[in-house]
Amino acid sequence: MKQLVSILLLLALAAPLSWAGPGRSYVIGFYNLENLFDTYHDDGKNDYEYLPDGANEWTEAKYEKKLHNMAKVIRAMKDENKVWHTILGVSEIENRHVLEDLVAQPEIADANFQIVHYDGPDRRGVDVALLYRPDQFQVLESRSIPYTFDSDEIEFDMDEESQENFRTRDILMVRGLLNGEMFAFFVAHLPSRIGGKGMDLRSRGGEIMYEASCELMEEYPGIKIVAMGDMNDNPTDPSMAVYMHGKEFIEDVGPGDFFSPFVSMLHAGYGSLAYRGEWNIYDILIVNEHVAKAPAGTLRIIPIVKNKFYGRVFKKPFMVQDEGQYKDQPKRTFSNGTFINGYSDHFPTYIVVSNK
Q: Where does 2-354 sit in CATH, by number?
């Protein structure tokens, strides 16, 4: 009898802590990996500061530490959830090679993550990508959606010549089957806020994703869509609230709208990064009506924090800077030009979908 009780206790401890019960649950997340560059020059990419003789003196030893640290965070999320991510969007990666090195790290190799990645036109040389578990998600198609200025609603600050010379990250779309249900995932890294510019550019990024989502919803009625990324905007900014039609509350989501779970979390004081001394949530996941209001027995977004919030900002003490200029902020790779063996200047975020 004691042996049976012990076995049952071990099984209980092995179950997901936040969503135990019959049915299936899947973790879908996003992580800005903060300049995951290898130590070799790629033609056409401005990666010179991430070379051994570059400004960051980016050696193989530093690169290996960076890979280990990224894998440590992904593993820590698995240890908390008791399951690996099914889908993990990433940004600020140089090429497919760094992702192959990442998924081979011993901390996460058991997840058997596969990669969807396209080389993009960003002048700094960083791309977005999708990691997925092939035993849970079957890829049917993917494409890289270029950034364009073809908008009827947005007035741009850039003149036509500047627009022609502008280069930023493409938006990745991956469509496939998750537990037999049709899903599409968008991964974005919208234009920067550097110099106080870019609200029009980020609004256009949201508009591009929304237009692509509408095309998918028309072609595949009932398709479930999750858009994620480093939006360089809060979920309350126009790119997400207006151009992605993001709503704070599920009951307000109608046809063509998206549920934006991190709005409530932002209002409650959560943050995924600090910018100019203020906490923000730029690392956003947002879902369409078919995920927010899915029928019983099908995959829908569920609350996972305090049985109230539908998103999670993942933050552990080892990921936090404990001194200096960035005290209490995400522990980044470099601080004032000095390598400090950190993780990322962003905390990862995720949601859970479940048919329980």
A: 3.60.10.10
